[in-house]
Amino acid sequence: MQFTLLRSNDEFQALADEWNHLLAMSASHVPFLRHEYLMAWWQTLGGGEWSNSAGPKPELYVVLGRRSDGSLAGIAPLFYTLNRDGEPALMLLGSIEISDYLDLIVPQEDLETFIPALLDFLDSPALPPWAVLDFYNILESSPSLAGLQAAAQARTWTYQQEKLQHCPSIHLASDWETYLAGIDKKQRHEIRRKMRRIESQEHAVRWYIVEDQANLEDELDALFDLMAFDPEKKRFLTQEMRTQMHLAFHAAFQAGWLQLAFIEIDGEKAAGYVNFDYENQIWVYNSGINFDLGALSPGWVLLGYLIQWAIEHGRASFDFMRGDEDYKYRFGAIDRRIVRATLRRNSQ
Question: Which of 50, 99, 211, 309 is at a distance of 20 to 30 A from 43, taking alpha carbons?
Answer without folding.
Answer: 211
